[in-house]
Amino acid sequence: MPWKETCSMDERCLFIAEYCKAASSVAELCRRFGVSRKTGYKWITRYEDDGFVGLSDRSHAAHSCPHQLDTTTAEQILKVRRSHPTWGPRKVRAFLIDRHASERWPAASTIGELFTAEGLTVPRKKRRRVPASAPFGACTQANDVWSVDFKGWFRTQDGERCDPLTLSDVHSRYLLRCQAIERTDAASVWPIFDAAFREYGMPLRMRSDNGPPFASCAAGGLSHLAVKLIKAGVTPERIEPGKPQQNGRHERMHLTLKRETANPAAANRRSQQRAFDNFRRIYNEERPHEALGQTPPIRHYLPSPRRFTGRLREPGYPSGVTIRRVKRSGEIKWRGSLLFLSQVLAGEPIGCEELDDGTWYVHYGPIALGLIDHRGRFVRSSPAVEGLRGTHTNLRAQEVLPIVPV
Question: Domain 145-299, CATH 2.40.37.10 — does that match?
């Protein structure tokens, strides 16, 4: 004989059917169906209020949650997110705390859950992280080092090429310039430097990659633009080839710049420049930066006390340094012969200092160019070599250039 199956809903309906017959008391019905009188009267009340529908199972979820994000707060958070689509939960929270400090804002994790629920989060692919290297000296305050680079060209919607040049302070992350220029040569870049120097003063060092117009294959890696920087009183420094992580702060800013201004690109170059200007204002004055304690860069940047008058001066050398002026051909006169150094330095004075072993350390201002060996040959240094005086054995011989007899 098969088992007779029943369910709680069927039992409740049978209970009410027996109750409606009025043949038994409620207490007797409860004993027959194996429930308490409290439960029996609950079913009777539900039936009288809603009919048989009222006998179905009801949700046990709480009617309210004291920790639930209220609608007004959620809308304020989403408003900031929609205005700045690339900002994460921590930046949005820091921004709201800064603007509305008297209000109580949820944790960043709660804000992240809200973004996910609203479909505003794109999960990232996991990838292996490569630790960044730091081959440069400490950057302890604003204007110690500025970083410069081209973001990478793209086309606006009308098909015109756009090359953004960016300039930022490494310590404060303050974005000094974001300018679309006509050409990526020294003649186009120097006016951007000139305007930035006049507005903010001069940094001690300017960090760049090894591409033109910032560097070249000439001695010391110097380019015409680098020579101008030295004459202005700024020391150029370059990252190692193929290691953009050494300028990681600036490269990370480029990622944010691309997302917020070039995805998609503007209709034309003029509209694109307006987008760059708006991004620079928000990036400097509003966007919280995690490395700065979730505060914007403008609170950490002050102009440099080293003012720029526009005058370029040749580097000075201490007494005891032999000075040679580079000819138009890129050569210097050395012990009755012509020795080729670099045409980039044409017309510039270079310093030669004799070392203990009889070789000569050659430099242009703070930049090492190489050595003149015992045979009178110029041994070009690696562009990364600095502080060569007294440690010339670290020089990597890249090229030995013969003397040209006079």
Answer: no
